[in-house]
């Protein structure tokens, strides 16, 4: 089966992209969940849709953009939006969560206008919305690899600062950590993760890959680093199993990957409840 999968170039590219996405998405997701900012993934994903729509519109009417992937335009829109999110969070210090619906609404509105300007939805837009294993091109692999390297470098270099800001931002500031600079770098990393993920998972489902493996890992982990390790393992299983299933069943890759992630979460929750019940039953038998 492995030989059959690797025989196809599009599947090779999808697997490479999937492994990278399965690594960086949960790493970023753990920090987002701890910060209670997991919905920011949805907001930036919808801004990315606007960028993709703008890229498709430019491909249609500007010859110079005919061979340029809309993914790069989506990446640019998402990174600009991530900077804007940080500015809104600084402006509304007591209502920082307000930045999320503002960006989300703006992203949806702009995306709808740009898509309508391009005469509505087409196959290209549907691929970005729902993900497709056929969609990952050679140039896009380079963008995904670049995004993955950037995210890993940021997390590796600033792990202690990100950890401190995630759990106690005020104490981290008093300790001399440059809050605004670190938060800006992290927001850019989140934007790149979302942009890198949409070709395989889809814009509408990218937040699921960022949060679902984290939700499963938090059921088992006893430390922050352990949560990251478990989340990466669950994400890799979701991506690889989802891509293989999507290939053989001819399903949308994004939906299949997310369904596998949901299944893993339900299994972990069920196993944990079963273990707790068995322990209580054993204790009752012992005391009885």
Automatic annotation (TrEMBL):
It is found in: Cell membrane; Membrane. GO terms for biological process: response to zinc ion; transmembrane transport. The keyword Transport applies. GO terms for cellular component: ATP-binding cassette (ABC) transporter complex. It comes from Marininema halotolerans. This is Zinc transport system permease protein. PANTHER family: ABC-TRANSPORTER METAL-BINDING PROTEIN, METAL ABC TRANSPORTER PERMEASE. It is a multi-pass membrane protein. The keyword Transmembrane helix applies. Signal peptide: none annotated. The chain crosses the membrane at residues 14-34, 39-58, 64-86, 98-121, 141-159, 171-194, 200-221, 228-249, 255-275. SUPFAM superfamilies: ABC transporter involved in vitamin B12 uptake, BtuC (SSF81345). Gene3D superfamilies: ABC transporter involved in vitamin B12 uptake, BtuC. Keywords: Membrane, Transmembrane, Transmembrane helix, Transport.
